[in-house]
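Q: Make up one entry.
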Amino acid sequence: MKEFDVSELSFNPFGRIGKDWCLISAGTEKSFNTMTASWGGVGILWNKPVATCYIRPQRFTKEFVDREELFTLTFFPDGYRNALSLCGSVSGREHDKPKETGITPLFIDGTVSFEEADLVLVCRKLYAQPMSEECFTDRSVFEKNYPMKDLHTIYVGEIVRAYKK
């Protein structure tokens, strides 16, 4: 992986996040977890380059993102859809996701990503806020996405490093 200036980041977030998916990962060499995400964004907030991600309370990865200062968003080239699908459908509490998917942990900048990635954004947590049912201005969005009332926590992370192949 080669570091580059995040201001040179050029990708379609609707495609890379919403269609291709990515992994949200956090932890250390001793203990980490990852999960698939298809919701999120990148932009500028508080005069910083940031990424936003959303994690439901029952996800094991949430414990790691809550505990650690850093998390990564990891994007893969074509050919990793099955790996990403598995990482989004089983829990790291009971499964060794890297072993089962064949992706290789890569420990960089005090956090975790994966060697097979073609793009890695290392983020420093700036903000975490649980969503609130009362704040939905369109009730249908809430009803469609939260039938179990398991609202996401919103995380905003400053993109402190960016790597590409």
Notes: The mean pLDDT is 97.
